[in-house]
Amino acid sequence: MDNRVIFDYSRLCKPSHRSKTTARAKMLLHGLFATISRSAFQNRSMTILSFTNNNPLIDGRQSEKAMLVRRGVQILLNEMRHSVLPELALSSGRRADLISLSVKGEIWIIEIKSSIEDFKVDRKWPDYRLHCDRLFFATHAEVPLDIFPQECGLFLSDGYGAHMIREAPEHKLAPATRKSLMLDFSRTAARRLMMAEWSTGTSYSD
Quick one: which of 100, 91, 148 has its CA closest to 125? Predict the structure, then answer.
């Protein structure tokens, strides 16, 4: 309790010859102590970090099949020496399911589709071209591959790896867009690494 609260308390506790003033003082004191008690309880129970699941890098919005596709593509891209980041928010307001940076500095976006319906309801996928050098779709064996546009690359994943069915054509990013995207990529990756360290209680060292 700070000095201001102590002063107010002292003033309110002074004897009063008027019953209305005394009643008002009691009411104010009751409200004051109730506020202080709630604040103390909240501060005592508040944690520095609060994660909704055991892995802060997974936001829980992806279906089981989408995660299966994602894992397989991530494994392949890692073997190709790409740096891969899932669920990156883009300047357009959309989110890339997977975005990767190749050793040559190329930026790829991989849009994951786990069903025919998943692909049909998405009519804004061409917007991703504004944020990458190459655009791919990725899916699993239960989805017919001929539904995906020929002007995009295509990955087929089984969860343990993936195969590039079709390479994506190149459409180079403008320099200013590339710089902005690289900054978002690096800042997001660093922040997620820090969150992962905090959630496990261990520190990462290269």
Answer: 148
